[in-house]
Amino acid sequence: MSDEYAPVDFWTALLRGWRGRCPRCGEGALFRSFLKMNSRCPVCSQALEPYRADDAPAYFTIFAVGHIIVPLVLVMERYGDQPPLWFHAILWLPLSVLLALYLLPHIKGGVIALLWAHRIAAPSSSAGGPDRSV
Ligand SMILES: [Zn+2]
Fold this sequence. Notes:
The protein is mainly α and 134 residues long. Helix content is 49%, strand content 0%. It binds zinc ion.
């Protein structure tokens, strides 16, 4: 067995993923752009491509944003002298979008780190799956 899974505890890997760093070494960038992952860590050459978060980061981001924004809306509605609907729209819609854009790469990094820590990799193309190298 190779050193692909160096001993890194789960929380360290999760924190590294949250920071957008390789869960193995904590140095290399996980992303080459906003949400595009590097296929390998530029520092330790850890293969990152097999760890596919798919739609999980989007679901978790929607869940988190909803659980942050909705209580704030309800608190403002209850204690804020019931502002008009346009005020809610101007305040909460951009705030929701900005919060989602902030959280999405962090949550995606965390999901990738979670997959890496638990060795949940997508099957390789030689295992009968579609060849993604083309
Ligand atoms: Zn690395």
